[in-house]
């Protein structure tokens, strides 16, 4: 089966979400709570949010289109850099005993 990583935000740990993962035979990777600096996707969303701020506010029905445009404009090298930094992130997190890191 698959292994899925998510943070422990309340919507992610809701019972119906947990039941879905069990029913689909998806294992969850244990992940520390309140550790957005450990998740590369959070950094990607920061880039998206920052870039969206440079455009006029889209109408609600256009928001996903704008998000997709900005998302696809992020260079693959940036994504790869975040992926490549995971070992350093984990080492820093362990060294900080689960506390804040430079990431």
From TrEMBL:
What keywords does the record list, in alphabetical order?
Answer: Signal
Domain called Tc1-like transposase DDE: residue spans: 7-54
MF GO annotations: nucleic acid binding
Among InterPro entries, the record links this protein to:
RNaseH_sf (IPR036397), Tc1-like_DDE_dom (IPR038717)
Q: Does the keyword Signal apply?
A: yes
| Signal peptide per UniProt | 1-35
- Coiled-coil annotated spans: none
- Classification via Gene3D superfamilies: Ribonuclease H-like superfamily/Ribonuclease H
User: Which Pfam family, an example, fits this chain?
Assistant: DDE_3
- Give the domain of life: Eukaryota
The name of this protein is Transposable element Tc1 transposase
């Amino acid at each position: 089966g698959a292994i899925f990583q998510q943070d422990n935000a309340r919507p992610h740990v809701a019972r119906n979400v947990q039941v879905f993962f069990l029913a689909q035979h998806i294992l969850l990777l244990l992940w520390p709570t309140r550790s957005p600096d450990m998740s590369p996707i959070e950094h990607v969303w920061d880039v998206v949010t920052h870039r969206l701020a440079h455009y006029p506010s889209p109408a609600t029905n256009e928001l996903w289109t704008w998000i997709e445009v900005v998302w696809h404009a992020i260079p693959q090298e940036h994504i790869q850099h975040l992926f490549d930094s995971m070992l350093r992130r984990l080492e820093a997190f362990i060294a900080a005993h689960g506390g804040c890191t430079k990431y």
